[in-house]
């Protein structure tokens, strides 16, 4: 990877990586730091990165950097320790985006990560497995659980619209 390809990767993917990290940790400054660290790692390892796979490399690096930051702060939630609340959103409300964002915030970290990669970024199950070091089956299970939670949280669409 040369300087031109690196700059092109910054132009093409920095906003997407930032949004992905921000949706997970909800702290703009830390998200910027993680994205910056990811691009620094890309620069240091530029000669070993295939320019065609730079997007996957960046998302994987950003994801692992985010996990390291969260572990350092001891904020990681394990699925076995997390009880999914049986909440629903019963009030009539018309801002679906706000309701959905609130529901996504309430997901356990791993479910939020896989659902964002799948539904917001458009990654395949295999690509998500590569980024998160999970098997395709685990990815599908986490996405299913996240969607069930979101469906239960949002409730009937008539209540939202």
Describe the structure.
The protein has 161 residues and is an all-alpha fold. It folds into 2 domains: 3-72, RNA polymerase sigma factor, region 2, helix turn helix motif (Rna Polymerase Sigma Factor, Chain: A, Orthogonal Bundle), CATH 1.10.1740.10; 79-160, Winged helix-like DNA-binding domain superfamily/Winged helix DNA-binding domain (Arc Repressor Mutant, subunit A). It is built from 8 helices and no strands. It has helices spanning 3-25, 28-44, 54-72, 96-105, 109-120, 125-132, 136-154, 157-160. Helix 2 (28-44) crosses helix 3 (54-72), helix 5 packs across helix 7 and helix 6 (125-132) crosses helix 7. The longest helix is centred in the N-terminal third of the chain and has 23 residues, at 3-25.
How would you sum up this structure in a few lines?
With 161 residues, the protein is mainly alpha-helical.
Keyword list:
8 helices; mainly alpha; Rna Polymerase Sigma Factor, Chain: A; 2 domains; 161 residues; Arc Repressor Mutant, subunit A
């Amino acid at each position: 990877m040369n300087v031109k390809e690196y700059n092109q990767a910054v132009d093409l993917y920095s906003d997407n990586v930032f949004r992905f990290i921000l949706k997970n940790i909800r702290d703009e400054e830390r998200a910027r730091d993680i994205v910056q660290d990811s691009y620094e790692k890309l620069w240091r390892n530029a000669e070993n990165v295939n320019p065609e796979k730079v997007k996957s490399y960046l998302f994987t690096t950003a994801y692992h950097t985010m996990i390291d930051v969260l572990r350092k702060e001891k904020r990681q939630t394990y699925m076995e320790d997390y009880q999914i609340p049986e909440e629903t959103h019963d009030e009539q409300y018309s801002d679906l985006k706000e309701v959905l964002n609130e529901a996504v915030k309430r997901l356990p970290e791993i479910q939020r990560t896989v659902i964002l990669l799948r539904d917001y970024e458009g990654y395949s199950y295999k690509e998500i497995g590569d980024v998160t070091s999970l098997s395709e089956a685990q990815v599908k299970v986490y996405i299913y659980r996240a969607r069930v939670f979101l469906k239960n949280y949002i409730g009937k669409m008539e209540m939202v619209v």
